Amino acid sequence: MPQILVDHSAELDFDRDGLAAELHRAITEVIDTTVADCKTLFRPAAHHVVGDGTAGEAVVLVEVKILAGRTTDQRAELSALVLAALRTRITAPAALGVQVTELDRDTYRFVHHPGH
């Protein structure tokens, strides 16, 4: 179920598959889910600005969406693990941000669509 959305500066060079694999494993350590249930989407941003734009930092913003019901401690631990993975894998100067958000169990739906 977890959905990981990684918005990042388009020119930033990093191992996306390696980061996704690390995040998927980390998530299973904190909440009751499987690696097979994790989905990561990388969204390069054509333009970004940090502060007044003079520092030249890249940007990586990660949102981890999980079903509601996890404790604050679990969500904080997950944020810390994601941030640690980013700090290891992003070697360029960058502004890094992580947010764990909850999806409503009563209204969230997900299917594997087989196509037509």
Write the layout of secondary structure elements.
Layout: E1 3-9, H1 16-30, E2 39-45, E3 58-67, H2 72-89, E4 94-103
Parallel strand pairs: 1-2, 3-4
Antiparallel strand pairs: 1-3
Helix pairs in contact: 1-2
Helical amount:
25-40%
Q: Can you tell me the overall shape?
A: globular
Q: Give the spatial strand order of the biggest sheet.
A: 2-1-3-4
- Model regions low in confidence, pLDDT < 50 over at least 5 residues: none
CATH superfamily placement: Macrophage Migration Inhibitory Factor
Here the CATH topology equals Macrophage Migration Inhibitory Factor
> Strand pairing plus helix content: what structural class?
alpha/beta
Ends: how far apart? Answer: 23 Å
Main beta-sheet strand count, sense and barrel state:
4 strands, mixed
Order of helices and strands: EHEEHE
Kindly report the average pLDDT value: 96
SS elements, strand count: 4
If classified by CATH, what would the architecture be?
A: 2-Layer Sandwich
Total count of helical runs of at least 4 residues: 2
Strand content: 25-35%
How would you summarize this macromolecular structure in one to three sentences?
With 116 residues, this protein is α/β, with parallel strands linked by helices. It is built from two helices and four strands. 28% of the residues lie in helices and 29% in strands.
